[in-house]
Amino acid sequence: MTWVNAVVQGVFLGGLYALFACGLSLMFGVMRIINLAHGDLAILGTFLVWALVDRLGVSPWVALVPALPVMLGVGYLLQRTVLARSLRGGPLIPLLTTFGLAIVIQNALLRAFSPDVHSLGAPAGRISTASLRVTGQLSVPVFGLLVLAAAVLVLGGLHLVLRRTGFGREMRATAQDPDTAALVGIPASSVYARATAIAVATATLAGVFLAIRSTFDPSAGPTQLIFAFEAVVIGGLGSLWGTLIGGIVLGVAQTVGGTIDPQYSILAGHLVFLVILAGPRGRSIATRSAP
Amino acid sequence: MTTGRRVRRSSTASRVASGCVVVAALALCGMPYMVTANVVQQLTSLFIFLILAVMWNALAGYGGMVSVGQQAFIGAGAYGTIFLTQWGISPYPAVVLASVGSAVLAALLSPLVLRLRGGQFAVGTWVVAEVLALLVTFDHDLGGGTGVSLRGLNVYGPDLRRAYTYWITLAFALLLLALVFALLRHRTGAALQAIRDDEDAAASVGVRVRPLKALLFVLAGFGCGAAGALTLANTLFIQPQSIFGVQWTAYMIFMVLVGGLGTFEGPIVGAVLFFTVQYAFADAGAVYLIGLGLVAVAFALFLPRGLWGLFAGRAQIQLLPVGYRLEDSAS
Question: What ipTM goes with this model?
């Protein structure tokens, strides 16, 4: 029964990782860059929500209402100012720029909020601890279900937007060939800015779920970036549903590893990633990603 | 009289500069006789930064590989040294063996991580570093998460110990500079820069991309392993969180970007600058790191060839003859 429980917990954790990963996957799919500041931007958004909760005494859900549009704006401006310029500098410059940004955000948060560990679990109320009892030994946390549902909604919504709407068509066209897309009147810079905005906002949502589920601190960003990246690679690049599967595989690996011995939890996730990379699928990762 | 053009590899400036490098290297060897032990220790850490900058520049500036995980090899070098001394090997030979061990580790990992490119390679190497850090924390013989001291160096007096560590660090720095110089002078240099500019285009004109990238990765594994082992010999104590910390990558990126990505002289300039900045501002903590990050972003966006690129571009000068020059010649 412990094992079933571990797998169930892992699936819910995987929902959280998929939510972190979808923005990373979207930016990679559209712009062919890995945003090394992705995790730190998520934590920046989480601190914004935490500050609103702390100052105004509102619930995290209410705080998300102003915070998400703000983070959409942050993402949009980030692309318009810094990333647009770095994209013109060749393949290395966006990596160096986003890594520099990650250092700046992390240490700015450290300076502003101290290295203390915070949680949004208590302000979120009973939902963070409530659980549904399925059988005698198996109970399902309500919050886990909520996170998984949110991940499915966000990923499904993005999928529909990409497939069914005019904006999605523009995004796919720019991803395939920005120059040709520009010829028919789709400015790449505007598409990129909107993709970055969506990525930062979904990362913020994931960060808030993380903060309600457990804890966060100014240096939590890089770990979330690594998990998100692992989820993307495990699930296969360029597929949003693959990202959900990847997140779940990573989550299950971590909880099952943690059941063997708590200290093996994160290592087990890394090992699954490395095994996938070493396997036959790993061979095609770089070729598939070639612009 | 006909005018033609011919290709030269060196110029008067580069011949003078090469001579100066040799004189400077000899002068640096004599440093422990001239300055206090404390200064010798500081100079040792300067040369460790120099090794790191040169290695990261070799990876990113010539191979187009932005690694965020070189701390994997820094940690492997340091913990390799601890492991070997626990087996009864004396510390300085252990430093050399651990560096070679890091190169072997890099050779074993290269088929795996070189499957990735660009940002994927960056995060992939980071995962490798995290895995090694976790494995070390699980091992109680290596001190677990609390850290471990290097024993066996107390057979030397403190002054002599610092001098020995300084000389071996200087030797590693010169060896690695010479290796990179030889790589760039050889025809691999042109091939490597072609890979950096466009991997697919380089492959299409017959550059063997994969073995060359693997070669650089192994060289960087060796150099970063040496830097880690020497850091241990210089400070005598390490903790997994700091030796496997991603701040090493931040330092390397800062040094190489400010000095000049993809230039031979740039990382040397960057290392000296970073050493000065570190000495002056390290106590400022978070603010100092915010500053480092902002400067790195500014250089990446506005001056990607760094200070040396700016200077060399303006002055039309290359101090060390790694490239080719086209000159008018009367004949």
Answer: 0.90
